[in-house]
């Protein structure tokens, strides 16, 4: 019985000695919050007024620089085309990337569609010098043979993300 009492006393003494040697340290915690990255549309992408061919489908391209290329089977009647323009704001001097859609459809009042693809941007990303930047976006419109007349509209999403 004395041996068990002695072992228990030794174990209790070791446990007390171990906890007496315990050490601790404090660490700081923190975070830096930066300005949220925001994008706004300044100008819409517009392909202009177009007369379709009665025999051949063709395309109209508006480039990010605002220029337009009208396919030979089409007649582009006015110079009222525009590339889409976007403004970006956020943390000064931060870098960001731009994501463009692959394709969309635009639709007239009767539900007839035309496809817009090959979106192209004036840049793939940028730096927010003084917390601001901007860029433009163009695309390619596919016009069918005897494409139905009407005003075609639709929308597309452009995303920006901090690098």
From TrEMBL:
Q: Which UniProt keywords apply?
A: Signal
Q: Name one Pfam family in it.
A: DUF4402
Residues of the signal sequence? Answer: 1-22
Protein name stated in the entry: YapH protein
């Amino acid at each position: 019985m004395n041996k068990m009492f002695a072992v228990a006393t030794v174990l209790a003494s070791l446990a007390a000695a171990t906890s007496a040697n315990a050490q601790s340290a404090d660490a700081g915690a923190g975070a830096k919050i930066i300005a949220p990255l925001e994008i706004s549309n300044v100008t819409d992408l517009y392909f202009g007024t177009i007369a379709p061919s009665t025999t051949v489908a063709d395309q109209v391209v508006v480039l990010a620089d605002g220029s337009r290329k009208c396919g030979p089977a089409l007649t582009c009647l006015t110079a009222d085309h525009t590339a889409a323009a976007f403004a970006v704001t956020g943390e000064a001097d931060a870098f960001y990337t731009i994501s463009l859609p692959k394709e969309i459809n635009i639709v007239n009042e009767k539900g007839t569609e035309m496809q817009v693809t090959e979106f192209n941007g004036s840049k793939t990303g940028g730096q927010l010098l003084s917390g601001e930047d901007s860029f433009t976006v163009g695309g390619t419109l596919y016009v069918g043979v005897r494409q139905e007349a009407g005003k075609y509209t639709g929308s597309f999403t452009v995303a920006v993300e901090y690098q």
